Amino acid sequence: MGQKVGISARHLAREFVVKGLYSWLISNETQDSADIDAHMREQENFDFADLDLYKNSLYGIIRDASMLREHFAPFISRSYSELSPIEHSIMLLGTYELINSLDVPKRVVLNEAIELAKDFGGTDGFKFINGALDKLAEKIRIHE
């Protein structure tokens, strides 16, 4: 089966990262990142994803999850443990990219997170994601 029409390799990589993080979160963070990675690589259309973005993000987020949560916690209205696994996954990814992917403009990071929330999250989850990441971006990316 072919790649979804109109989906970039980078967006597809982010989708697989969110799915992998979702799996990790619902396992109470006990699932090994290598096991998650192996499972994601078996999914349809994985070969069309940006492998470097996917791998660096998935492993980096799982490794640095505590630090990433510390960054976004002041900008959410509830504890991160009360977030849905999808919102939590997207917040981790967005925060990771804002901190580590300085070559990606903050507007792109925010737009990607919003699109992921619209695709996978609840009805108004994208509004929550947008508000929290926008405030975080103002703090982290002050020169943009």
Automatic annotation (TrEMBL):
Q: Where is the NusB/RsmB/TIM44 domain?
A: 13-137
Query: According to its UniProt record, which protein family does this protein belong to?
Result: Belongs to the NusB family.
Q: Name one GO cellular component term.
A: cytosol
UniProt entry keywords in alphabetical sequence = RNA-binding, Transcription, Transcription antitermination, Transcription regulation
Q: From which organism does this entry originate?
A: Taylorella asinigenitalis (strain MCE3)
The yes or no answer to whether the keyword Transcription is present is yes
Q: Which GO terms describe its molecular function?
A: RNA binding
What does the UniProt function comment say about this protein? Involved in transcription antitermination. Required for transcription of ribosomal RNA (rRNA) genes. Binds specifically to the boxA antiterminator sequence of the ribosomal RNA (rrn) operons.
Record InterPro entries: NusB-like_sf (IPR035926), NusB_fam (IPR011605), NusB_RsmB_TIM44 (IPR006027)
**Protein name in UniProt:** Transcription antitermination protein NusB
What is any one GO biological process for this UniProt entry? DNA-templated transcription termination
| HAMAP family linked | NusB (MF_00073)
The record ties this protein, via SUPFAM superfamilies, to: NusB-like
Source species, domain of life:
Bacteria
Pfam families with a match to the protein in the record: NusB
